[in-house]
Recover the amino acids of this structure.
């Protein structure tokens, strides 16, 4: 940007009249530039306000040595115009800051964007004027602005965080911030330089600073994981993929999890040998691609502490292999957070830099900084005299640029800072209730920093402009998120966050890097593709969760929550819908069995247990197969007799294998899964009688099976839970076996179809009303259905063993499960209810697929241990480890 142009724009705007606009946008980075392009094309009068002297956003300010993108540049580009894509060629796999800045300048020139940008202009206040229904902006340069829509394209990492160290002002040497690096050359040659901070900015700049400085001292508070970038020309195979099918490549990125076209990894760590895992890791290490290593090694690395630890250990090995001094290597090796939970970095020679004689690492965990003095930095052990201090201390991320930069006052005079005092609340990360016509591009609550920003920015820009166009066509002039929608989004965000490991690290993702900032995972962790489909759903659902008004149209408010399912349940159901399967009941019994067997082959293998054995036991009318899962701990163990699901028609003793393994591991108990007889070959009461007979046989042979003699427990899912419930009643009435507890997961308990859950969830959640009709028809004649051996809710319930009854919100069987639990309680049976919000009939047994079911599985395991008279602390909780626990485990 030539100075003359800046001056011209400023003087044009200094008139005393308020400038009237359709849209004002803050920020001329990736987001603002494309937004301006689209808004202008759509016919909105638009002005961009930018504090800097030229376009570039974060790439204007972050000019420190070594600044580069760390998403491959061919992915970190605009995709809206194929001509632009062929007009610009990137020279490197990861472009430098100057090249990215040139690119953004090229884009600004190509679409003549600068003529609608007021540079060197800060917004000093933004107020929603209820009378005119417009935003009124004050700026420090030029006329005030009145606009219908106000859009923050301010970036997620653009408000540098103060260093919070005493004495910075006393320092007599040079001070630089990586996020506000000078435009003129900074000469470090021959100087003693200190760098504080080892996030991406520190890790990128430290190797280059070390080459110039006489002495470099790095002050590290938290070690970070860094991987070699292997920078060079853009990789030929990715270019070939892009050029082979540009549209397809870009579309795949848009629907991927991270905004980069990689497929979902399905192999899980425990299916791979050490050698196989190492081979995958070495390949990833050689690839030099963050998204690749974060998503392609094994499916559990991003969601499971144990799967993640395997990878973290391999990276620590690399650090030790590179850094010669073992104490320095140990200090550089992260142990306090799972890999990926804090933003990992791409580096060029970062770890090797510590082998240079002029580089020293100071571990602030062992000697915290006391203060900065006139001559340098003092820790509580030593003083370091330096000529230059570089603060690579990061940003007030996600909310800083929106909230801290200027007061934003919405409806009723409420300030955004107050509304967000306990953390950002948004609807879709795009809007905030109480702030009509205000949009944020890649705001908190959207995938933003957990994605390829270029993809997320284009999606947000497109979504906003498309909505404004649609509103204009319909005559609406205001749009505002409802409280219901926002609360629902906050809940969905929290559900998503339980899926990942981000909550286990103190990072700028959670606000932990800024003292006093509210804590919580701020970006949307549910993935780019799922997020895009949700935004589309909102738009296609009549602007679900928004109130729209206009002068000549009646108000429209299609209120509600856009996602009520757990995020992984939503993905599973979405995949099932896409498969366009025929209704199971149309396949016939054998066809349905074949289908289920085939379907089960595609699920993750169950986790290892001590031993899996098979055998035969005595059923009601002959031998039945069983499968026994034994814990790895020394026995004898309590025994749980397990009955699989499948509507009395489908499945076998193997079909709930991952669930049996999971429960065996969590409880430390033997699970014996019984292959009871099925209909239509063996109709009612064969399955029920087998259940009782099998339980008796197992109780009698407990010692032979390695189990504890004495009472057993029963458990089952769906029709299997029906058998478990019936078994308890029969055992009580027939003088044994003794049963100490029953775990009923989504049980069938009654033959009527008139409870509301049969209507609410009749279709769309895999187990349908018509499938249940079919199961009942095959299993049981109408005359037999009221028999308590088919409908245990109709039986006598007193004197039954303690129970845990688990039900799922989106399950036709929900209400009969609840009815059974209530009836048991009324009969004086100790009963615990587990109502799984956002889950469907198969959620709790789909181990390692529906990961959000883990807390329910923990609760179920605790109940079984209670039934067995064991202490609760033996329950393995899987992914619920806290940062403290990770630290403790790491020693
Ligand atoms: P980051 O990733 O937030 O890193 C900041 C670093 O500065 C980090 O190592 C911090 O340690 C350290 N820090 C912050 N404040 C202090 C104080 N007071 N004393 C000592 N050390 C401190 O910012 P970056 O600019 O490197 O990267 C930001 C993102 O930009 C990056 O993730 C990419 O997405 C691009 P801590 O970890 O808090 O202990």
């Amino acid at each position: 940007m030539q100075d003359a142009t800046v001056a011209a724009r400023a003087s044009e705007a200094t008139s005393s009249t308020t400038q009237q606009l359709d849209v004002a946008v803050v920020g001329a980075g990736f987001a603002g530039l494309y937004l301006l392009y689209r808004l202008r094309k759509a016919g909105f009068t638009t002005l961009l306000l930018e504090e800097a002297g030229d376009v570039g956003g974060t790439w204007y300010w972050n000019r420190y040595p070594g600044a580069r993108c760390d998403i491959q540049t061919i992915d970190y580009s605009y995709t809206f115009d194929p001509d632009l894509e062929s007009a610009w060629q990137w020279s490197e796999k990861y472009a430098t800051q100057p090249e990215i800045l040139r690119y953004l300048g090229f884009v600004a020139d190509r679409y003549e964007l600068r003529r609608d940008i007021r540079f060197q202009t800060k917004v000093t206040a933004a107020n929603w004027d209820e009378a005119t229904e417009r935003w009124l902006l004050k700026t420090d340069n030029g006329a005030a602005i009145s606009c219908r829509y106000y859009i923050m394209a301010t970036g997620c990492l653009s408000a540098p965080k103060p260093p919070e160290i005493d004495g910075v002002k006393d320092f007599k040497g040079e001070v630089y911030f990586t996020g506000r690096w000078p435009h003129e050359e900074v000469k470090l040659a021959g100087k003693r330089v200190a760098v504080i901070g080892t996030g991406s900015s520190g890790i990128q700049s430290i190797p280059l600073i070390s080459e110039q400085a006489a002495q470099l001292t790095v002050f590290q508070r938290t070690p970070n994981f860094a991987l070699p970038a292997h920078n060079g020309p853009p990789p030929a195979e990715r270019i070939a993929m892009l050029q082979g099918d540009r549209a397809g490549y870009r579309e795949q990125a848009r629907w991927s999890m991270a905004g980069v076209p990689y497929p979902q990894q399905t192999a899980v760590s425990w299916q791979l040998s050490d050698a196989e895992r190492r081979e995958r890791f070495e390949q990833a290490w050689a690839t030099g691609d963050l998204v690749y290593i974060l998503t392609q090694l094994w499916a559990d690395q991003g969601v499971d502490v144990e799967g993640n630890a395997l990878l973290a250990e391999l990276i620590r090995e690399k650090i030790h292999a590179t850094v010669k001094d073992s104490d320095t290597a140990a200090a550089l090796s992260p142990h306090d957070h799972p890999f990926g939970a804090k933003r990992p970095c791409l580096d060029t020679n970062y770890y090797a830099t510590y082998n240079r004689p002029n580089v020293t690492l100071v571990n602030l965990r062992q000697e915290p900084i006391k203060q900065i003095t006139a001559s340098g930095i003092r820790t509580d052990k030593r003083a370091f005299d330096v000529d230059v201090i570089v603060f690579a201390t990061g940003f007030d991320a996600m909310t800083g640029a929106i909230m801290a930069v200027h007061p934003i006052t919405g409806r009723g005079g409420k300030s955004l800072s107050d509304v967000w005092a306990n953390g950002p609340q948004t609807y879709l990360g795009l809007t905030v209730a109480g702030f009509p016509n205000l949009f944020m591009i890649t705001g908190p609550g959207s995938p933003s920093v957990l994605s390829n920003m270029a993809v997320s920015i284009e999606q947000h820009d497109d979504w906003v402009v498309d909505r404004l166009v649609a509103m204009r066509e319909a005559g609406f002039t205001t749009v505002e998120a409802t409280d219901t929608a926002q609360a629902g989004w906050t809940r969905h965000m929290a559900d998503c966050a339980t899926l990942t490991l981000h909550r286990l690290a103190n990072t700028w993702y959670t606000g932990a890097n800024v003292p006093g900032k509210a804590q919580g995972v701020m970006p949307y962790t549910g993935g780019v593709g799922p997020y895009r489909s949700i935004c589309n759903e909102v738009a296609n659902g009549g602007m679900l969760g928004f109130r729209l008004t206009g002068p000549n149209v009646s108000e429209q408010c299609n209120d509600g929550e856009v996602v009520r399912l757990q995020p992984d349940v939503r993905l599973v159901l979405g995949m099932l819908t896409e498969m366009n399967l025929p209704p199971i009941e149309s396949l016939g019994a054998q066809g349905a069995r074949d289908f289920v067997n085939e379907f089960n082959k595609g699920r993750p293998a169950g986790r290892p247990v001590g031993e899996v054995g098979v055998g035969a036991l005595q059923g009601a009318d002959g031998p039945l197969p069983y499968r026994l899962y034994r814990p790895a701990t020394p026995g004898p163990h309590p025994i749980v007799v397990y009955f699989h699901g499948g509507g009395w028609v489908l499945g076998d003793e193997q079909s709930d294998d991952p669930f049996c393994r999971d429960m065996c591991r969590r409880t430390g108990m033997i699970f014996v899964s019984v292959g009871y007889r099925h209909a239509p070959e063996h109709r009612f009461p064969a399955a029920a009688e087998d259940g009782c007979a099998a339980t008796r046989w197992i109780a009698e042979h407990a010692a032979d099976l390695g189990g504890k003699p004495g009472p057993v427990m029963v458990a089952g899912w769906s029709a299997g839970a029906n058998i478990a419930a019936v078994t308890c009643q029969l055992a009580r009435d027939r003088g044994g076996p003794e049963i100490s507890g029953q775990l009923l997961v989504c049980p069938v308990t009654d033959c009527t179809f008139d409870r509301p859950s049969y209507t609410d969830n009749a279709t769309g959640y895999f187990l349908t009303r018509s499938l249940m009709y079919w199961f009942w028809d095959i299993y049981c004649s109408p005359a037999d259905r009221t028999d308590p051996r088919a409908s245990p809710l109709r039986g006598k319930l007193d004197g039954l063993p303690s129970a845990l009854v688990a039900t799922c919100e989106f399950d036709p069987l929900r209400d009969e499960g609840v009815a059974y639990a209530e009836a048991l309680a009324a009969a004086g049976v100790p009963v615990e209810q587990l109502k799984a919000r956002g889950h469907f009939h198969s959620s709790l047994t789909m181990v390692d697929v529906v990961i959000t079911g883990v807390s329910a599985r923990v609760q179920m395991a605790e109940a079984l241990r209670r039934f067995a008279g064991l202490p609760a602390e033996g329950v393995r909780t899987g992914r619920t480890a806290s940062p403290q626990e990770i630290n403790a485990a790491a020693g």
